[in-house]
Amino acid sequence: MNPVLKLLAQRIALSLFLLLMISALIFAGTMILPGDVAQSILGQSATPEALANLRADLGLNDPPLTRYFEWLFGALQGDLGTALTSGQDITSAIGSRLSNTLFLAFWAAIIAVPLAIFLGLLAVRYKDRWPDKLISGVTLASISIPEFLIGYVLMYLIAVKLRWFPSVAMINDSMSLWQKLNSIALPVAVLTLVVLAHMMRMTRAAILNVMQSAYIETAELKGLSTFKVIWRHAFPNSVAPIVNVVMLNLAYLVVGVVVIEVVFVYPGMGQYLVDHVSKRDVPVVQACGLIFAAVYIGLNMVADIVSILSNPRLRHPK
Amino acid sequence: MNDYLKHLAQEAALGRMGRREFLGRAAALGVAALGANTLLATAAKAAGPQKGGTIRIGIQGGSSADSLDPALAANATATSVSRLWGEPLVELDPMGGIWHRLAESYDASADARVWTFKIRQGVTFSNGKELTAEDVLATMERHSGEESKSGALGIMRGIKSMRAEGSDFIIELDEPNADLPYLLTDYHLLIQPGGGKDDPAAGIGTGPYILKSVEPGVRFVAEKNPNYWDDSLGHADTIEFIVINDDTARVAALQSGQVHMINRVPPRTARLVDRAPTIDVRETAGPGHYVFIAHCDKDPFANNDVRIALKYGINRQEMVDKILNGYGSIGNDTPINSSYPLFTELEQRTYDPDKAKFHMQKSGYDGSILLRTSDNSFPGAPDAAALFQQSLSAAGINLEIKREPNDGYWSEVWNKQPFCTSYWGGRPTQDSMFSTAYLSTADWNDTRFNNEQFDQLLYAARAELDEAKRTQMYADMSTMVRDEGGLVCPMFNSFIDGVSTEVDGWVDAKTGFELNNFYAPMKMWVKA
């Protein structure tokens, strides 16, 4: 069997196993949450009768193990159950939220990843001179400021004062792509600022590391321009660490942007999850947890595979 | 002068003069702000509502876990949205009294035990079905059934039987209750076809709008119901609710012109927001109050002197100034204030560290007192607890503050722990407020107030149709709660809404909830 295919199969199987373990953890975790879903749904205005009626209705009296396996088999068939609080079908509700989240993450990544790598290359090219220091300074400053603050500042300047882009990043199906992009301009800008520094610094460090090697000196002695040396000779050999950090940031863009979603009122997964955690809507929390775990594992798997494929020594083991 | 003032009001209503400028000129003529505001509202009405356009509302208090079932409505978004598509029998009039909706009129028997509601004829649901008394009966049955999950179940319990006769809907009560129409203004009780028994979350009713797009916790879009029976309600073609739970984002959406109105402007920034020329901040006094509640049956609070000491040890004016930023009024350790129909002013209790010290020593208790609080028990609750701690320490009383997580506060702390911070939204009448939280057998008697005389008075007042006598009875009951209860009530909070000058027709209110009891989107119109 082709060693690459074997490797892929191994990685995927391992990831699936990991996901199964995580599903058990998620289920156990949601079991030990304090409080009670019926009380949370009815809030302060709950009477004991209404509570007892709702509890029986929601099936909260079944044993946990039964509920775990029922949930797992359902999830395997793409059926994530119905939300306890609103009675909606979770799969379809999450579908639209997930596509919104991916839409935002996609556009943020499209801008942030090439920009970060380009800035990283630029910083290496002008190492220790003013462009390097400027790039490092600005990106480190933007990662150090809490993201909600960047959000508020941009909102005040761009949405309230200049009125270039809306402060409420509301998107729906009836909007054209252009309208949608206009609507998410501010959150994309904030997310770009937040993830830029990490990827830029890693690109810079990884390439500088390679720049010490003898073959770079050879390339320089051949008379190649500095940028060509970096791009053609140094960059391909530093892909592995860069891909790793890019994937981590992509995962963050999908699962970690709840604060940005709240600030810009963006209907994504994070807000959906938080709403349901506070209402003790366990099936939704479990479904979101499973999806987030799958995204994390999937992206890390891609990072692993890419770094192996990019390294001839790993690609052709003896 | 009067003519000049009217002229000014007209100018302002037509948008040729800003509201603030008008109020300023009116003040120069010696007219108080409230009178001038009313005048302005009258002039705006005279200028006439304009039809068409879209009104957008940025609203706080919605979650993607919300359902459209009115029985489960428990936040501002669910309640506002349900008002678009559905209607109750009767509604609170913003200036007090009853506003007839699907009940054209009602009558009570002489002993206030049997009530007959005449149902409006010729009204259709948005699915085309005609409204009948049977639908009303089915709706009330759904909210009062044994399996009901309705938030209105508590108030439906006193009903002995219900029936529909022709166009009449008749309720017979176990005990007389002169306030029944007020109880039926409960925001869960929207009339649905067949009572909504088949599909409670269908969103089908007789309201001025029909829901077109429903994304819980995100956005709701509704279009005007062409067959709606009441011309005075529903001027815009489209109403769009956008759920914006973050305070800063909600204010920014109003400031940037993306929405026309928002609820719950944070008190801290309300005056700054009001400075913008395109925004008016509207304050509505209401029955809602922020409270410290002690269980009267648990030590050390079982001793009334400890409770009295706490009541003397709180600085009410400071709380109104610092926690509400002036958007509210001071409390008097009773849940009743002037927004209730039969209100009597009681002698105001004020901050007196000496008296607090005296009563604490008299009680013989010298330990510290544990207060539990959380951010969501009311806005600024931990800060209010710290202020209380300071004002009590001047009386030599040591208050220990325990911060609890927001998560699970209502199930684990409120109504369980002996002393905590909390809030009440208030109720339309004294009777329903007292029966909900101060009757010794009430589920939410969160101060464990157990007073036989109080209970007897409450029942007697229900059957008392003489208004003067009833007023006196409620005053006596308020006095009992104030002097013997476990309620330390420093402040009544106002509702603060932000409204853009692009819309007109705001109505001032004395009672009800935020955004003109949730009717502002339907009563206001987009200026041409």
TrEMBL record, chain A:
Transmembrane segments: 12-33, 102-122, 134-158, 178-197, 242-264, 284-309
Domain ABC transmembrane type-1 as annotated: residue spans: 98-303
Keyword Membrane: yes
Keywords: Cell membrane, Membrane, Transmembrane, Transmembrane helix, Transport
A cellular component term, taken from the record's GO annotations: plasma membrane
GO BP field: transmembrane transport
A Pfam family per the record: BPD_transp_1
Keyword flag Protein transport: no
Membrane topology of this protein: Multi-pass membrane protein
Localization annotation: Cell membrane
Predominant location: membrane
SUPFAM superfamilies xref list: MetI-like
PROSITE patterns noted in UniProt: ABC_TM1
PANTHER family: DIPEPTIDE TRANSPORT SYSTEM PERMEASE PROTEIN DPPB-RELATED
Family: Belongs to the binding-protein-dependent transport system permease family.
Protein name per its UniProtKB record: ABC transporter permease
Classification of source organism: Bacteria, Pseudomonadati, Pseudomonadota, Alphaproteobacteria, Rhodobacterales
